[in-house]
User: Fold this.
Amino acid sequence: MSAATDSLSLAASDTVALAASTTSTGEAVQFWILGTIAVVGALCTILMRKAVHSALCLAGTMVILAIFYLANGAYFLGIVQIVVYTGAIMMLFLFVVMLVGVTAADSLKESIKGQRWLAALCALGFGALLIAGISRASLGASNGLGTANAGGNVEGLAALIFTKYVFAFEITGALLITAAVGAMVLTHRERTEKAATQRELAERRVREGRHLPPLPAPGVYARHNAVDVAGLLPDGTPSELTVSQTLRARGQVRDVSIEALNDLAALEQRSEDRLGRRPAPAGTARRGRAHEEEKDQ
Amino acid sequence: MNPVNYLYLAALLFTIGATGVLIRRNAIVVFMCVELMLNACNLAFVAFSRMHGNLDGQIIAFFTMVVAAAEVVVGLAIIVSLFRSRHSASVDDASLMKL
Assistant:
């Protein structure tokens, strides 16, 4: 009986040691799948042109890293990673992207010739160096966190933070307060001149003599009243004035002038068919005729 | 699978982040790449903590997170004030010490 329990406990300690130096099949599968996604997310972060897409890819990578922390026995850090990084920091990033990124299209023109290739080469060399260093290191057998986490992961961390690392912890608090005050000082702006009142703005507009009435509204007849559809001038070209400056800067203006002209031509065609007149030449004939008339005059 | 694979993944993510810092010129994206590098370091710390069987690595990763949070607050404030003065978030435009 006792021999049986001995062998059982021996087998159990063997499996514990085994689990410490290698990982279970489930964790291996998880690592290879999620690791691939994390690397793809990181690559998308540096390759996407728009900052919003980069931020979302980075948030995905951070969530996967949180899962890896949990798999490595760092339960507290895994939760903190999700709450602090993907919850607070990435949302702060998105907030600043919204604040700053009106003209966010990153230009792809190189300001220093060949910089991109040199940077890629440097990164390749650096990565090779790093990975070769890790593969050459003798890291020894892995112990696993079984004994360290025995009394609970959070309790173990708390015991360390408030004894061994208590000074670092206090200094971190000072750092956080300094950072908060610094951010307020940096973004606060004292207004040096008085803000213009509505009356002063109106008077300035009259003095400058441009656009006395309100700006024209966007949209084409009753068909498109979306704010990103530019209103059409009498000759069928879209008017820049009708859409807001922000949309123009983002390049999000929808141009429906071709569509509208084709609709108009089709309408004329139908009415002439019904009235039994000769069929007009299709397409842009109307505009061509207008030009001819101008030439004649 | 050997837990050392986590270190390889961390090295790969760190390298990708460093590449992004070198090639991107939008200040916000450069900043995100720095965050990616910090996260890769955290992953390495957590993996080391598991290998050595004590929690010190996790403590260091925890402090890294706190410092990263402070860094993000100040860095984004700098980016916003740069954008206000230059109307651009490109790191190329901030090439002079004065406005």
Summary: Chain A touches chain B through 86 residues (CB under 8 Å).
